[in-house]
């Protein structure tokens, strides 16, 4: 059994606290004094990633409120990201959910605060890559493989993916594989289209998954629910 630990990363005026391991006592490790010791005068935003929190009781609420007061006392803002449904339910029942700024995912926070360049490699220039993108569909029995080569960074490119998925479904595909082996970069709009593709397949009883994603693409996928839906692993 892993011990609870807290990983910390600082970007610009933001500090992230991420719980990892087996959180038997949820926020016991992440306390107000622990946070305060790491708050420097330049920190304006504090982000708590609660994705790995498995238990959340009354004591947890007290600790979270103490952290909130500590952060606000310094003049900073506290954000919660990747909040599990069980935690969200407890916060709502305690009538304190509105005291926090909550994001469904770290990726949503990154986009909202313009941190893409800090988290991901520089986005390729659209004009240079417009002709470079190639999306092809290869049929292998009941399996259909959609290969994406280049960077998905423009609206027409996103629509090409949906068209290929529609074609595979029309050809009675039993499963669809998105092959990212030669994909350089995908933007936030691509994530939305991948969600559309997943729902289309789910409605038709067809399994869709992704393979061969590089670290950049994988990071984008794993910061959203898409990574899990498509079977991506760290």
From TrEMBL:
Membrane spanning stretches: none
Residue ranges constituting the STAS domain according to the UniProt record: 4-113, 161-234
- Cross-referenced SUPFAM superfamilies, in alphabetical order? SpoIIaa-like (SSF52091)
Classification via Gene3D superfamilies? STAS domain
Which Pfam family would be a valid example here?
STAS
Database matches in InterPro entries: STAS_dom, STAS_dom_sf
User: Which CDD domains does UniProt cross-reference here?
Assistant: STAS_anti-anti-sigma_factors
Full protein name: STAS domain-containing protein
Organism annotation: Candidatus Raymondbacteria bacterium RIFOXYD12_FULL_49_13
